[in-house]
Amino acid sequence: MLQLAVYGVISGSILALGAIGLTLVYGILNFANFAHGDLMALGAYLALFFKVGLGLPMWLAFPLSMLSTAFIAVGLDRVWFRPLRQRGAGVVLLAISSLALALILRNIIRMLWSPQARYYSRTIHFPFTVPLLQVRINWQQVLIFGVALGLVILVTLFLQRTKLGKAMRATADNFQLALVSGIDTERVVLWTWLLGAALAAAGGILLGMSVRLQPIMGWDLLLPIFAATILGSIGSPYGAMAGALIIGLAEELSTQFIPTEYKGAVSLLLLVVVLLVRPQGLFGGRRR
Amino acid sequence: MELSGLLAALVFTSIFAGIYALLCLGLNLQWGFTGLFNIGIAGFYAIGAYTTAILTTPPSPYHLGGFQLPIPVGLLGALLTSGVLAYLIGKPTLRLREDYLAIATIGIAETLRLVLKNEAWLTNGVQGLRDIPRPLPGAFGRAYDLFYLGLVVGAIVVVYVASERLIRAPWGRVLRAIREDEDVAASVGKDVFRFKMQALVLGSMVMGLGGGFYAHYVKFISPETFNPLMGTFIVWVMLMAGGSGNNRGALLGAFIVWGLWSLSDLVTGLLPPPLDTRASYLRVILIGLVLQGILLKRPQGLLPER
Amino acid sequence: MALLEVQEVTVGYGELPILHGVSLRVDPGELVAIVGPNGAGKSTLMKTIAGLLRPQEGRICFAGQDITGWRPDRIVRAGICYVPQTENVFPSLTVDENLDMGAFIRQDDIRPKKEAVYALFPDLRAKRKARAGSLSGGQRQMVAMARALMLDPQLLLLDEPTAGLAPRLVGAIFDKIEEINRSGVAMVIVEQNARQALQRAHRGYVLAMGQNRYEDTGKALLENPEIRELFLGGR
Description:
The structure holds three protein chains of three kinds. Chain A is an all-alpha fold. Chain A has helices spanning 2-29, 36-53, 58-86, 91-113, 139-161, 163-173, 175-180, 185-210, 217-231, 237-254, 263-277, and strands spanning 128-130, 135-137. Chain A is globular, with a radius of gyration of 18 Å. Chain A starts with a helix and ends in an 11-residue tail after the last helix. The chains are: A mainly alpha, B mainly alpha, C alpha/beta.
């Protein structure tokens, strides 16, 4: 049990990196971005390019991928989503358009990196037993968790302490009020994409490190990160973190009771339960 | 290519276009008229196909089935299971904001795909179901495809006429009122949830029927057939291209988009490997761009709603 | 010279105009009340001044500048702050953070201003670390006003500040409004509580069916038998 819980916390921390960006974009631009999972995959593959393609060390490939994914996301918002917003497209059309973008990203990945599974390295990491806890874990998992946790703490500090971070939360809370408070919403949107996509890339890379890289990984991530977002109330980054932790734990612990193949269905189950019991999410007093 | 070969290819392509036309009519009922955001079409399509396949196939040691029931019974079963699935998904989501339905339908389609892959006793897993019977297999000789096309067109006509009558009736006016403004519809005393549920279930049943017609034509189905691209996304492209809220647009969109898609398949098929696999990715990228172009330049589609 | 001058403004959502040629004038330091029946277009007028809606016709001038069609954040910078009727706080932010957001465009040290605002609303000081969404209706209204005051606006627009509040709170809110006004901030308030609003305001406008019907001092409007009959429920 404890062993599974440890795995759950690790995968939850990876999911959290994806869910934070998703929930901020969802809250601020008010649409479900179905391309967010594939943005995570893109980040993972860009790191592969920097590491294996260019031969850079991972500690360099990692931030480079975050940075480039962030700028790609801003560019995509400019050419892909903003023209639709300016046409006054509704929630659904933006979401459908994001579905198209998701497919395009996924197939660009297939084209550039082949549909086969890829790995950052072939090193095998041997697990050791943590004293006292009797949990088996390897150093790579420790590293993955450490990086994810570090990023989550940094983001929390940013959202909590800086003016821009507070403005981001405020805009996700209530866009119109942000506008009449004089908050420069255009700048907030820009930074939301930068931050959200950089975190998405980090999550994608960490997932790629712990399992493997596959073009479909973004699609497989979609349901868990959406479930985490809704569980934690749309627009609330702290809620998304908590939601991701719950999803990660539930997925791993579920393998005690149901076949491992159905891990992916756990998100759906939790999602449906939340929608039935508390549709505004666990942390929300949000309208609608 | 000689003329008869060309004709055969045309009939073959039209059968699939016709099956997609059924899916489009179903989606039009949900999205076009009621504003329901279903992006798990593949799930309803799949459950329809698998239901009729399990009901009508001969006994097999590999999976449940072997009921050898008549095909019309299989199709009725398909209508039933897809309708029930729609009801189950609508229950928790239809009272909430519109995009929750979308996320839940994606979830159900993916979960269903997991079930199809893993419950081999029921579905033979990734191996898929084979030996699905065709209606009147011996008859019509080389003109069999033409006969089957006739069946599909017959189904389209029935669904089209029924849908048009429903839409022109007071029931359809309520649906459109809900699409325009749910609160207004509710304020004049309409049970919004019930009407949305009816549209969701009816539309999904049409999708299930499409799955049934698919299964009985190709005789073999596997979970991969019902992937998000071919099971869901392309149907959205068809409806947006043809004109959502217009049933004739839905039909037109299905035939045009399927025609272009098949044509592009023909072109990429001529390429030598490994270019051909790359080109197949390019096709998906192109269809994504086509959808975005429609959304930007002509969101009302070729035949706008009247 | 007038601080705010709304001239013959016509506004609508889509085809249907809500306001037909409405005019409004606010002098520096004045407290102006807008009253009228539901659906008269009072909130629409406020949103238009704040820049959330664009007038189809007419002009809006503020402090000698034509601000017609400006973006909301530019209007805020010009010195007009607006408090919407509902959803007027950031619920997941603390009271303190709400005030920070009110001062978003200020580059200077905002701590003295914050202290002054807390001095005006002492109840909020105790709640400064609480999430605004967890506060009572009256407290939320105070957070909303406090947020708007963080910029030292020349003109404050309040849309139904007492809507949905318990009667004993209504008086307290009006007292605050008068206090803020006495400190030199010109204000426009839209009110359902027409009687109280007109008693406290310097001048008032009666808006009905999207048009100006009456304009006079608050006192005169209250004494006008026709208005008493039509808009103040007789007596």
